[in-house]
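Dear colleagues,

As part of the handover before I leave the project, I'm documenting each prediction I ran so the next person doesn't have to rerun anything. This entry is a single chain, and its sequence is reproduced below.
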Amino acid sequence: MAISPGHHSNVPAEWADTNCQAVLEAAPDAMFVVNRAGEILAANLQAERLYGFSREQLIGRVVESLLPARFRERHRQHREHFMANPETQFMQVPGIFALRSDSSDFPVDVSLSRLTIGSETFAISAIRDTTERLRMEELKRSEAVLRESEEHFRLLADTAPVLIWQSGKDKLCTYFNKPWLDFTGRSMEEELGDGWAEGVHPEELQKCLDTYTQSFERREKFRMEYRLRHHDGQYRWIADIGVPRFNQEGAFAGYIGIGVDINERKLAEDKLREYERAVEAAEEMIAVVDREYRILLANRKYATMRNMAKEEILGRFVHEVLNKGVFEAVVKPKLDECFQGNVVRYEMKYTYPHPWRETYLSRIFPLKELQVFLEPLAFFRTSLSASVWKSR
């Protein structure tokens, strides 16, 4: 409710004294003098600036008209309680918003002080815009949450059994976990930025950088393998997976990556390739099977006898290549025995597409040379049994 600007009948005569108005003007906050009815009797320049009203527009208004509707009743109750209790000289009205002339609202701190002149009691209301303070408090809370989150992440990262790194929006690395630093034997300062690249083997460096840069520009997940210098001076193979990361607002924030030492696996793959070259021309059917019963290696004779291309065999499960019933009843138990470290021999009639149904001797034994690198492997060697050769 607004009273006409000329309504000053309740203003005490003392306020005509310019010194009293000067006290209001000297205050750093917006100031009102309000009577028992809640009408504004005096206002300072800061109030004009804060609310966007002229002094003439402010004086005579009910003070609650300068609050959003949702706060008016609560403020009125605070004000009336304050005026009705003379023993209360000061009161704060928490969690409230004010209303500007353009109808925009903003958070404020409101403090009420009692002023008695003669028999009249007035309330002096000090109003301070808290927008910036609340913004800073929220920023500090967000920073505290972020610090806690980062500390939690780094605690987890430092105890993880993998190498972890992070980079910013500029492609430069900003963090490496303790396992990474322990692996390379270098300090965080040495690895930050693009310092980590000094440890990549020269033969993989350019491909490594190209993969990282191209994926970064496309904001795509990537996977790459490269040799990284170990703290003992030797290079070890690392499988590195990087994924883009985004902040709470959905904005791109850089990348996070996880590296796994796959050196043993790479050595095992090399060893398997050596085996493959060694057995390719053998006249016996030879295959290497892993603990999941997956065929990792098969020579030419094995493929020919199954009437299949090697590409149709490698990577498939044994039961997909052999008769499933035979696999479950005979081959699987024999493989399981082999995986316990035993050499297994058995004879069985097979109907191969070539040359005819015959009795074959199968010998399965562990590839102990590779068990230091991979899970147990079985070397499967099958040939015509001696009894067949003797009958010919």
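Residues 266-391 form a domain with the Beta-Lactamase fold (CATH 3.30.450.20). Residues 1-9, 386-392 have pLDDT under 50 and may be disordered.

All the best with the project,
I.
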